[in-house]
Records
---
Amino acid sequence: MEIPKYIEQIKEKYGITNDYVLAKKLKVSQPEANWFRRGRKVPNTSVCIRMANLLDKNPMELLIVAQKDKAPPDEKSHWAMALTAVDVMSNVPERPRYIPQKVEDIGQELRQFESQMLSYEGNVAHTEMERLIRSVKVSVDSIMERWQVWKRDGPLFPNYLMANQVAVRQGVKIRRVFIFKHSQVIDDTQVADALQVMNDQRRVGVSVYFAFGEDLDQSLTFQRLAADYKKHGVEAEINAALFDNEILIFSRSYDERSLGIDGTAPPITMIDQLHISWHQDHLHDLNPAPLFETRYVLEYRGERSFKTQVDRFLKNRKRHSSP
């Protein structure tokens, strides 16, 4: 119990020698003051705030200490971590400038936790994806309409791809379905890019699947999924992954940004905003796993098989579009 330490600090600061005076200072009954001093009872919120004011401390510190004292042994470390965070954020130096900015970023993350969803942009989003996959133990189910981000000049290559490889070696089963549009598979350059992406994925141990967008649009499962993602702000393409059936990431949109002051360099694709959610409604409504059970999603078995499926898709499209 740590509350008794703070009681002793109050007694020392104000020269208190008995429980009667202590009780008056804390505005509680004498028996309660005795219980607090001996660690037999944890003070409530009002008393914690009063103690903090008497000691000129951040009230959050006393509130967290009280929660830590009440917590079962296996949860005390979590409250200790929270207490460390309060201590850090209460003693932030002004220099170097990076430090207060870093603490502010941490504070923004903490404020988002109540909503059970975190949001990141740009390079920070890519970094969080790598951190997240390092925590996975069992499975990843992913759907990618913006498959180009996996190209060798894309933002997910090579760091995130290598993180996938590490996860697979640790026993994680990763399934990823890439969705290709008609306009893409009639372009030889884009077909070559798609094959490079899928071969890279398979090389690191990912179970690779693919679907043709115009066919997948006929699936009620995909229609419901697309509608649910649209409700959550996804503008055009679904790019999402479910980790261990307990945390979901999805990109709201992507943005093309140019390197160089004059803007003449080739644009780089960046995540506009990435959401990381563990809200149960999101896990239920936005789960990409059911797509793998539809007849429109095919397993990638190599370049020849893929090209055969592309030819079949194009012939069907031509036949249905003929008068």
---
Amino acid sequence: MSEPKISVVMPVYNREQYLKESIESILDQTFTDFEFIIVDDQSTDSSWSIIQEYANKDSRIVAVKNTGKKGCPFARNCGNRLAKGKYIAVMDSDDISLLERLQTQFDFMEKNPGIDICGSWSKIFGISNNITKLPTTHDDIRDQTFFGCAITNGTAIYRTNLNIEYPVDFNDAEDYELWCRTINKLKFANIPAILLLCRTHNNQTSTAKKKEQTIDANKSRLQNLKGLGLTLTDYESRIYCDFFAEQFIPQNINEIICLTKIFEKISIAGNNSGYGKKFQEIIKNFIKNIAEKGIQNKVTSLKLYFTTFRKWKIFETPRANLRYLYHCLKNIWR
């Protein structure tokens, strides 16, 4: 076939249960000028047979099988290297692209030549249900990426000539490492429309390997700190990483104060490095979360309130301040 406008790249490993629906969501797109590169990473179920079945029916499908199981980042990179399109659209083998996805993203990229990578909002379904609304401008995406993903990988489209490479040593959080590594070099955007149905199930990485995914993501978060000129002690790193792993259970008030001071340092360094309003809002919400954990674990004190939370204006109304003070006194007198 002649060079297509878009190359859709989808890695597959043991997704027979959802694969047909994912493949058909691309083949049924209103935008038709694409090739569909499907890279099977040595599936042990019927995934490869399903891929071959569709490849025999639709010439736009390029079916590739790895010579050994090499992981999702390797499979993504394999597909990217084969891509002939002007753009590469990411697809995951358990998700569903809405019919207008490719057309919407193609039009956006054509109209915005300064944007390198574009995602969109998505709807989560399956074992959990909600809508993921991510920031749309590059500056806000940059602010949020410092702490976590601001581009849903399954919604991403980027220019092929960027030669995007996923890190093969971040097998469980390769997309976040990629966004962190490129956020200050490339321009990002999110289209404020739901273009993908993102399936949640017990076998996906974010569920089955949540611990491993968090460990990989925290490597990127610590690297982000170094980019601001901040280096944490081992003690500080443990507390900081536990917070993002949702495992921060303060044993005493010193741990709460330590974590709060870490975010204070990040706030100051971020402001000096050009991070914006959203960056500061995220930190403020984190500190509010820390305050709530202090109450829940009965280690909050008036000292913490007067030295940290009041200074940050965490509680914006008199009623909220009084309520917090009530819990402080209740814990002290208990």
